[in-house]
Amino acid sequence: MAQLSISGRLTVKGLKSQFSKTFGLELRVYKGSKFADESATLASLSAKKVEDFECKANMLVGNFETKFTGATGLKIQVATLPNARTEPGVLVNDKFTLSEASTKFKPL
Which DSSP symbol is given to 61? Predict the structure, then answer.
């Protein structure tokens, strides 16, 4: 089963890249209402101490987004890749697991 380790030492760019490779989906990371600086680490963006955690393929998208925010203090959204077969570049329904979304919205 696919999984991803998340820690405060990860840069936004590194996290997004690993997430895309692992799940075939886009991760949008926000600092407030704007996209987070790609070169910044999660710890440097957060006002709280970032807790390490694992993201697993069987997690619901909504649960992952909530857990990420709780662990890092940052908001995220999971979306389809711009080159997805169906519905490119749209937010993924919170009721899908990451695995289901990965399968349904595979890139071309």
Answer: H
Digit-coded pLDDT (tens) for 23-56: 999 999 999 999 999 999 999 999 999 999 999 9
Q: CA 75, 89, 39, 37 torsion: positive or negative?
A: negative
Residue 17 carries which side chain, given as an amino acid letter? S
In whole angstroms, what is the distance from residue 105 CA to residue 85 CA?
Answer: 6
Angle at 91 between CA 41 and CA 32, to 5 degrees: 40
On whether the CB atoms of residues 98 and 20 are closer than 8 A, the answer is no
Ordered structural domains, the chain, with CATH: 3-104 (3.10.20)
Q: pTM higher than 0.85 for the full model?
A: yes
Query: Considering Cα of 50, then 73, then 96, then 78, what sign does the dihedral take?
Result: negative
The rounded distance, in Å, linking the Cα atoms of 22 and 39 is 20
Whether residue 21 contacts residue 55, with contact meaning beta carbons closer than 8 Å, is answered with: no
